[in-house]
Amino acid sequence: MSAFPATRLRRLRRTGALRDLVRETTLSVDDLVMPLFVAPEALPNERLPGLARHTVDSVVQECEELLRLGVKSVLLFGLPDEKDEEGSGAWTRDGVVQRALRALRPRFPELLLMTDVCLCEYTTHGHCGVVDPNGEVDNDASLELIARTAVSHARAGADIVAPSDMMDGRIGAVRAALDEDGLHDTPIVAYSAKFASAFYGPFREAAGSTPAFGDRRAYQMDPANGDEALREALLDVQEGADVVMVKPALSYLDVIRSVKDATRLPIAAYNVSGEYAMVKAAAAVGALDERTAVLEILTSIRRAGADIVITYHAKDAAQWLQK
Ligand code: PBG
Fold first, then answer.
1. Are 130 and 142 in contact (CB under 8 A)?
2. How far is the CA of 202 from the centre of ligand 1 (A)?
3. Region 186-199 average pLDDT
4. What is the pLDDT of residues 282-312, one digit of tens each?
5. Whole-angstrom distance between the N-terminal and C-terminal Cα of the chain?
6. Domain locations in the chain?
7. Is 230 in the pocket of ligand 1 (CB under 6 A)?
8. What is the pTM of this model?
9. pLDDT digits (tens, 9 = 90+) for 34-59
10. Does residue 48 or residue 253 have the better pLDDT?
11. Domain 27-321 belongs in CATH node 3.20.20.70
12. Torsion angle, CA of 297/162/246/317, rounded to 10 degrees?
């Protein structure tokens, strides 16, 4: 093939219709999941509007609005009344997520209810599992509690459960517990490659889940490790994951691509709270155009290989995508 002047790549960029015809990556509201926080008390968050805490009542209103805008999937997080050492608020029948699920399920049969399965919002120490006497998170002792939490969410009406704790063996433990309870048809979205990231800062503020001591680097992944991320994903596939997730999204677009290529499963990417906060802060001082920046970011996550994008921008993006 001859090069310039016979070949001119600008030819296919000349008009809007041409660009629409040759676009390789699509972004649709169908791809988006909106995370929502449910708590005993509503608490607006001026700095992070998408991270306001809802009550069970206000989350019902919010879901109604999301559905009206075409957002059909939500990811629920809970903030309990009281925390304890084990995080029992995570699996109790009257937990905040369980109550939200029972309120939402009959009202919105068309809404996909996904839940984050973890203990960190429910434990006094803020870690994602049980802490042993040496102050270390006990992997195997945590599995049963995580599995119990997943089952209680599914019983209360969750369509999909998403364990985010990063314990070894949790996907197998959750799958076995769901099956034992007759919940064979409940899929698992595995937070497979979840990195120990600074970009979770605003979430921890909103969810009150900052560890009381230490950090999460003994269970979440080292941001430097791509090969290990693949091993995590492949193990979760073996253990029965239906969808694998990479989190955060923007510093890990290469990981999204390699996990997609290696697994060929549906891939979810979590565009996390710090990534959202950076865009909001930059837009607020006029440093960038929010709408264009957000659509570019979400498209880049899709181009990297994500089928599903979990993002606090979902509600705004839904409006912007209605041409
Ligand atoms: C709970 C959990 C976290 C996030 C999702 N699930 C926090 C963490 O691991 O510290 C982060 C979400 C975000 O920053 O938007 N394990």
1. yes
2. 9
3. 97
4. 999 999 999 999 999 999 999 999 999 999 9
5. 38
6. 27-321
7. no
8. 0.97
9. 999 999 999 888 778 888 899 999 99
10. 253
11. yes
12. 0
Of all atoms in ligand 1, which is nearest to the CA of residue 128?
16
Active site residue 247: yes
H/E/C letters for each residue in the chain?
Answer: CCCCCCCCHHHHHCCHHHHHHHCCCCCCHHHEEEEEEECCCCECCCCCHHHCEECHHHHHHHHHHHHHCCCCEEEEEECCCCCECCCHHHCCCCCHHHHHHHHHHHHCCCCEEEEEECCCCCECCCCCCEECCCCCEEHHHHHHHHHHHHHHHHHHCCCEEEECCCCCCHHHHHHHHHHHCCCCCCCEEEEEEEECCHHHHHHHHHHCCCCCCCCCCCCCECCCCHHHHHHHHHHHHHHCCCEEEEECCHHHHHHHHHHHHHHCCCEEEEECHHHHHHHHHHHHCCCCCHHHHHHHHHHHHHHHCCCEEEECCHHHHHHHHCC
Catalytic residue among 72, 83, 247, 260: 247
What pLDDT is stored for residue 253 in this prediction?
98
